[in-house]
Amino acid sequence: MKIMEIEGGNDLNGTIRISGAKNATVALIPAAILTDEEATICNIPEITDTDALCDILSSLNVNVKRASESMIIDPTNIKNIEIKEEFSKKLRASYYFMGALLGKYKKAVMYFPGGCSIGARPIDLHLKGFEALGATVKNELNKYIVEAEELHGANIYLDIASVGATINIMLAAVKAKGTTIIDNAAKEPEIVNVATFLNNMGAKITGAGTSTIKIEGVDYLHKCFHEVIPDRIEAGTYIIIGALCGNPLKIDNVIPEHLDALLSKLEEMGVDLEIGADYVITSRNNYYKSTSIKTAVYPGFPTDLQQPFTVLQTQCDGKSKTTETIFENRFMHVPYLKELGADVEIKNQTATILGPSKLKGSQVVATDLRAGASMVAAALKAEGKTTITNAEHILRGYEQIVEKLTNVGAKIKIKEI
Ligand code: UD1
Fold first, then answer.
1. Which CATH architecture is the domain 22-227 placed in?
2. CATH class for domain 2-19+230-416?
């Protein structure tokens, strides 16, 4: 197990450069096997989720060359064999191999994906989409066998605008015969990034980023070069940390429009913000107005930033509320936030936070990736030492977090016990 130790209460000053987006990368790597030649992807973050996907590629005999932030994926000698449970359970995004293998080879065999335990997280919409394209789905225990004689275009309406289902159906439909329409599609920037990647290979996808995506099937996907967009969730996390401890903190390599919901909430609270074309500068303030948020699909307030944001709400004057509408189990950080001195009550899916609270170092747990990020933010603000156990969750999504924070003056260490 990994343990993070943070000596908090210090100002942070300098620049943090944002890495490539985790949630785009984890879809782009499986999507790369759709090419009939090879795909080069740059700005890939070095996070453990990337390593886990590379392990799956190797198990399928896909040739992968990694050099610093780029990756060349050559699926020419791929063997479409079962993806073992030990691989699929390491992360949520392993499920993108279902859509990609089905789209290319008309068959995928793999186990239910892993990922953060933030709710039930079923994959029924993905499977319904595959069935609409002509596939049959067999589920034995935890294993899924999805296959088709031929995939054909279909009109698919998603009951929920799911990020995973939108991307997975896109991957399965890209080589199907005819036209597929996904209605009530999710609109997250990572979906646009994946559609651009596929179009760079010769796919015909329009409408990504809107709620209707149209995919005209093609027979061949050629060589391509692609760049991962900056990680809006990593950026948002550090912007929140800047509002807690910045003096000042510059967050560089950001697409500010991807963070509109967060930035306007911060402005409403009275956070000092300088928003440039590709950067945001924040500083801590002694007084923040209380504010309430409700998570929603993009462009609403991202559920992935809800947990770090609650830390900032502990510093607001009066009562703030956070309502989680996407995942039913995303307040697991709250008991630990209270352990650090916050005043928070949860009722149904709403956390009520009374501030401002003086946070003090203690022993806490990173129960999942973004809960872990919220513990880092709280520990940096808290006076004294905080120990965060299960810190490996944090490394799944934040590239070089210890180095990035150390460079701006944080006292942070990670060790294995
Ligand atoms: C992705 C992100 C995650 C983010 C989430 C919402 C990745 C790897 N993960 O997760 O970081 O928090 O989007 O922005 O990109 N649902 C169903 N049936 C399905 C699919 C989803 O009921 O078949 C439900 C989920 O349980 C959840 C909601 O729909 O309540 C949204 O889930 P979804 O958008 O699919 O999230 P993920 O793709 O799992």
1. Alpha-beta prism (3.65)
2. alpha beta
Q: Is the distance from the beta carbon of residue 93 to the nearest atom of ligand 1 less than 6 Å?
A: yes
Domain positions in the chain are: 2-19+230-416, 22-227
Which ligand 1 atom sits closest to the C-alpha of 124?
A: 23
Say yes or no: CB of residue 160 within 6 Å of ligand 1: yes
Q: What torsion, rounded to 10 degrees, do the Cα atoms 233, 238, 240, 245 define?
A: 170
**Do the strands 384-389 and 363-365 form a parallel or antiparallel pair, or are they unpaired?**
parallel
pLDDT in tens, 330-348: 999 999 999 999 999 999 9
> One-letter amino acid identity for 116?
C
pTM: 0.97
Pocket test for ligand 1, best of 90, 326, 329, 368 (most atoms within 8 A of CB): 326
Specify whether 116 is catalytic.
yes
The distance from CA 368 to its chain's CA centroid, rounded to whole angstroms, is 12
Residue with tokens 């015909």: 204
Ligand 1 midpoint to CA 50 (Å): 19
